[in-house]
Amino acid sequence: MRGRSRTAIWAGLAVVVAVAVPQTAWWDLNHTVFAQAVVSGLLIGGVYSLVAMGLSLVFGVLDIINFAHGALMTITIYVSYLLFQNYGVDPYVSLVVTIPLMFVVGVGIQRFAINPVMDAPVHNQLLLTLGIAIIIENLALVLFTGTPRSIELAYARNEFDLGVVTLDFPLRVFGAVVSLPKLIAFLVALLLAGVLYLLIQRTQLGAAIRASAQEPEGAELVGIDVRRIYMVTFGIGAACVGAAGSLVLPFLFVAPTAGATFTIIAFVVVVLGGMGSIPGALVGGLVIGLTQELTQLFVPGSKFLGVFIVFLAVLLFRPEGIFGKAQR
Amino acid sequence: MKRTTVLLSLLLSLVLVAAACSDDDAGTTTTAAAESPATTTAEEAPATTQAAPATTQAAPIEPPDPILIGAIHPLTGGLAGAGNRMDNGARMAVDEINAAGGIASLGGAPLELVSADSTGAAEVGVSEAERLIGDGVSALIGTYQSGVTLPVAAVAERDGVPLVIDVAVDDSILDQGYTYTFRIQPNATSMGTNGAKFLSELGGDEIKTVAYLHDDTAFGVSVSEAFTAAAAALGIEVITDIPYAPFSVTDLTTEMAQAAAGSPDVIVVTGYYGDGLLAARAATDLEVDVKAIVGIAQGAFHTPQFVEDFGADSELFFNSNYHFNSSDPIVAGILERFEATFDDAMDTEAMLAYQAIYVIADALERAGSSDPADVQAALATTNIADHFLAYPGPITFDDTGENINAEPVLMQVVDGAVQQVFPAELRETDPVFPGTPWGG
Prior knowledge:
Distance between the termini of chain B: 65 Å
Distance between the termini of chain A: 20 Å
Number of helices of chain A: 12
Oligomer: heterodimer
Radius of gyration of chain A: 21 Å
Number of strands of chain A: 4
Order of helices and strands of chain B: HHHEHEHEHEEHEHEHEHEHEHHHEE
Helix content of chain A: 55-70%
Strand content of chain B: 5-15%
Number of strands of chain B: 12
Shape of chain B: globular
Strand order of the largest sheet of chain A: 1-2
Largest interface: A-B, 59 and 62 residues
């Protein structure tokens, strides 16, 4: 029964590929375009990783499916935008504001909204986070109107003399273009992933978070305030996506729905990487970024087709994700 | 066991949200809530009725009932920016008509705008149209999106209430033989054919090949198809055609690199504002080696906001699109009043919504009746020469309801301002071609 359905699914995937590939002239692919797809995929993948890390942490530790994750990102996109427009604060400098701010917002949401429903059925929690997302999006709509706005960094297309080497942005790598804002977002995302990994693996707080995730009652017994750990964890998750908001501002645009675009992708990344796994989110983000851009090469206009094929395949064949531990 | 349940519910909810997102982002469930402020503002309209009865003092009869006009636009979701500006444009027209004494042939009856939120989704647009018709509107305007307008036009036809399309481009909306739907803006064929004509006039023999980057909704597909057919007749070949999903893309660099890969003479872009900005950024980062980037019915490249936000990099982008008549002093006055009232720059979409109200007011005046069927009959014989758009002739509808004089103009950002460059009689400055900010 199980074997037969798997065969049917493989057959289905084979049909999709067989139908899609001949429609594209994949064999005469231009090398520059291929390089561009790889570069763009990795760069956007870094941002996906950062967004997904927060989501994964919240899911892995609290077992909460946070649909408000993208909306939290929208908040910092607006905060960074307003700081830039009104006070000329560089979006990267505004990380100093947005990361702590979103930590506090996250702790607040967990304390006042989610903690009370921790034991409620999963669909109640899900609707609650969806409700928070709708409130945030519509608040942004009322306050800032729906008009998309954008900023351009004055130094995004400059030369930087680093002594050893002069970097002329946008950089060219094998003919592919690397824009400065995307490179910065990618590097900062990797850095934050490292910091978060060390925090979870090497600190006492991290140990408490891991304990609360694995065995909440046991953690409670040895004196860990699990509710407090939940608040801190949700705060860290919100801080991750908050950082992502500030980082994407210079190459995306500001609109009430800007962050929501990332929510679905982040869920795919979390499932792919494994719930609660930081390295999983990092690798998952890069894989999904690459999948999306390479799909665009082979099936123009269907960027997300490949992403969802990967998503379904992971759910069916390795539901615990690449880095996740099997549950049974 | 528990994990499986969680995963299943996650998958289910993802599918649900994805369905909602394909037209719009999660705004669907908010309709009722988001709408109440809009209807409250609509209720402010009767305030102007108190001013109107000044003339009716001699005969102390009751002031005439307001005439309801329904406006359906995406007031929430990814297109909320344009949708709210259009709603504001319509509201301003209603206020001005009321301040000038309402509809004279109906005893100075004032207009009342009833706003509705399509959320960008076809099914919501339909249910809102049905609600407004139930409320007794004499006519509808809307809806900014072809995909929403198509089913709304069907409702208008079925219930016999005229729909004046301010913005929605797809030809097929009026291909159904409807008699109750009228369109002020150029349709996809007009957009595509005129776009191709402008390219050929602009470049002569220098434009032989085109790469086309367009959104994958009814809007982008219909315009690109019309362009491709018209361009072929003029000896211009579309060598690459790349669609993209306008509301979920966060980067168009790969798409732009694909478009540039075939070394086309020109890259043509059709889409909405946000994705247009991403396309412009990708072209600038890549410094694509083409003679020009030309928008056709593109939602960004001809707007003051694009020039403001994208700065010096916006220089020399072309766009062939509908445009208000920027050389008309009356239009300049409208732009000023809009800016003063809403603290927001008026764009052509808002002007088209503003115009739609004037077209309906003109029909009401001539019909001397607010009955939808009479309004429809009057709309069919519309002939408005003093309109606000850059068209070669008056607004007048053919048998299918198309405005026969609806044509786009070609604009270019020159010296930090959007200027009309084609046709010659509407030219504000000479086009710069070949012209890209990074090229020769």
